[in-house]
Design goal:
Elements: H1 2-78, H2 82-101, H3 104-107, H4 111-129, E1 132-135, E2 147-155, E3 163-168, E4 170-173, E5 176-179, E6 181-188
Parallel strand pairs: 2-6
Antiparallel strand pairs: 1-4, 3-6, 4-5
Helix pairs in contact: 2-4
């Protein structure tokens, strides 16, 4: 009977070992599936995070684009008359030359000249109402952002690099220079060698 118990115990052990081997195989297969699913989940999370990051960047770029286009539109509206104003400034200069070429004594008795002065004043008012203004140059320090030097003249009366005379007025449209003033600039008088 000892043999039969042993053999029965061996059979049970073998069956148990077989069942354990099958269970181990199933467990290993399940663990492999779990690992594969965990890897898929981790990859999906990485892709989701990358997509979120991309969306955040795209939203930021779009906001910047909207701000830039809004700013560009405002600038376009603000400076919309620049071309026509620049084209009309020579006409204003011609009116000024007409007025200044007529002697003052005759100016009060000349209805044509009075009409030209009125037109010039209306024209100047219209430009000012639209943000176009002349800027003063005579006596100011020469500035390449505002002035265009046509020549220089030696002088003892004024320090160097000052505007002595203005040939043509400079104009600003809001904060932008639309025409540089054409000027004569002072330079130091050279000492005469004895």
């Amino acid at each position: 009977m000892a043999k039969s118990t042993t053999s029965h115990t061996e059979k049970k052990a073998k069956t148990r070992a077989k069942k354990m081997t099958q269970a181990d195989k199933k467990t290993a297969a399940m663990e492999a599936k779990i690992k594969a699913l965990e890897d898929q989940v981790a990859e999906a999370l990485k892709e989701r995070d990358a997509a979120r990051e991309k969306n955040v960047r795209l939203l930021a770029e779009f906001d910047n684009f909207k701000r830039r286009t809004a700013k560009d539109r405002l600038q376009l509206i603000k400076y919309s008359c620049e071309d026509i104003a620049t084209a009309l400034l020579p006409v204003l200069d011609d009116l000024d030359r007409t007025i200044s070429s007529t002697p003052r004594a005759k100016a009060g008795k000349n209805p044509l000249l009075e009409g030209v002065v009125m037109v010039r004043d209306k024209f100047d008012k219209l430009l000012r109402e639209n943000g176009i203004r002349p800027f003063t140059s005579v006596g100011e320090k020469f500035n390449t952002d505002l002035h265009e030097a046509l020549m220089s003249r030696e002088t003892e009366d004024m320090e160097e690099d000052r505007v002595l005379e203005e040939f043509e007025k400079g104009y600003k449209y809001h904060d932008r220079v639309i025409r540089h003033a054409k000027v004569i600039v002072s330079k130091a008088k050279k000492a005469v060698a004895k």
